[in-house]
UniProtKB/TrEMBL annotation:
Its cofactor is FAD. The lineage of its organism: Bacteria, Bacillati, Actinomycetota, Actinomycetes, Propionibacteriales. Residues 238-389 form the Acyl-CoA dehydrogenase/oxidase C-terminal domain. Belongs to the acyl-CoA dehydrogenase family. The keyword Flavoprotein applies. Residues 129-225 form the Acyl-CoA oxidase/dehydrogenase middle domain. Keywords: FAD, Flavoprotein, Oxidoreductase. This is Acyl-CoA dehydrogenase family protein. It comes from Nocardioides hankookensis. InterPro entries: Acyl-CoA_DH_CS, Acyl-CoA_Oxase/DH_mid-dom, Acyl-CoA_Oxase/DH_mid-dom_sf, AcylCo_DH-like_C, AcylCo_DH/oxidase_C, AcylCoA_DH/ox_N, AcylCoA_DH/ox_N_sf, AcylCoA_DH/oxidase_NM_dom_sf.
Amino acid sequence: MSTQSPYELSREHEEFRRTVRAFAEAEIAPHAAQWDREHHFPVDVVQKMGALGLFGLTAPEEYGGAGEDGDFTSLCVAIEEIGRVDQSMGITLEAAVGLGINPILTYGTDEQKQTWLPDLVAGERLAGFGLTEPGAGSDAGATRTKAVVENGEWVVNGAKQFITNSGSDITSLVTVTARTGEREGGRPEISTIMVPSDTPGFTAEKAYDKLGWHASDTHPLTFVDARVPEANLLGERGRGYAQFLATLDDGRVAIAALAVGCIQACLDMSLEYAGERQTFGGPIGRKQGVAFQVADLEVMLHASRLLTYKAAAMKDGGAPMKEFKQAAAVAKLYATESAVTATRIATQVFGGYGFMEEYPVARFYRDAKVLEIGEGTSEVQRMLIGRGLGLPVE
């Protein structure tokens, strides 16, 4: 009988971790600061990530994926390790798989999968997921983008914002949520439609000037009579809202993995600096005020990692959806809030140097805040957790 904990990574997962870490330290870490300064999205490195197989970890072999050799836990390991050196590249991977590939893999027809997945799984192309709008974020039911059928085509009009991987040189399509009718009582019928990047009337506007994630590709999108074939409907008409909720459940765990990478980076940097920085005749790490802060980082790291990989194991093990949703929300809430705290602690350990952009700790400080916002804010996670406990939370 195996004595391995259900949340302890397997030997294969740890070997995979070492492979991804070696890649991240060789191909990403030396350039991350420059990409951040220049707001540069490194297409060549994204494609190297694809060649390593990182975009195919949840995909079947028939589309070029890992098949039985991959799983959701492997994806979380990859996101954590990439995020440990650069959060921008970490979110690029997370969004490419969780928001780009997985909806097509889960809800697409055979033809849609054959058309889009091979290039996406190979990392040669990227796909975005257009959900958020100027007036509809967590309240996705307030979606204003509309799509109507005319002569066998969907005609899409509206706008989306904060959409990752939506306007890069290798973006092939964006899947968008849109109102396609009304239900009884006036509730909107929400469907998801795939819009290729070269569709006339579809524009990825100028990239955002963001607080963090400078090397990540993020754009507002506009649709003005953008016409796509009626066959570009993804999944069942009117099920777009349910599809997006399921997509975000997985995404929350993946974002938690990104947060774990951030906390690990903060611990690594703080340990090194506390051992080297000399004050009053010795390293600052001998002072309780510093040592206690570094100890807190260790505690947050272990707790966040366990919550994250517990949820990932539940996903891979086919746990009941209600239980998985609760575990995903708990992991996302705790890990992301811990990551924000960890970057504040690390910056404090570095003192004045932590405020200087020449040190990576400053970049991680800027990058961390959005973890509490993207793919469901902390407030939404608390609402979901409360509902999972049986409370009538509105």
